Amino acid sequence: xxxxxxxxxxxxxxxxxxxxxxxxxxxxxxxxxxxxxxxxxxxxxxxxxxxxxxxxxxxxxxxxxxxxxxxxxxxxxxxxxxxxxxxxxxxxxxxxxxxxxxxxxxxxxxxxxxxxxxxxxxxxxxxxxxxxxxxxxxxxxxxxxxxxxxxxxxxxxxxxx
Length: 161
Fold this sequence. Notes:
Number of helices: 4
Distance between the termini: 75 Å
Shape: elongated
Radius of gyration: 35 Å
């Protein structure tokens, strides 16, 4: 029927399968798989053939949806390839995954192209970066903090020997 390796079975056939014996339900499922893979109907008893008619319609409808989706994907891929310049190099070639493609135009006016922070400009906000706060510390305060740090680290070392 097609090159697809699977098909959908809907839960709404469960009541039908419950009414069938395990043997008949197995025959119906085998007929579904065979029809989906080959497009050929299996020879079934009259009651199973009646049950298979609705299932066959669902299989055909899903196969048609799949083919439509494949055709649309082929067309989209062709459009992508047609937009590529003919003289591309390895670094210019199309990305292998559509998610990697740049769908944005290169003429955007909504971003700041200044990427240098030396100019003190934030590229995303277009605002000057705030100046860092400078706090003056005396040598006495420095010694006090260093002494506390040394004392704490010595206690830690003694405790975890």
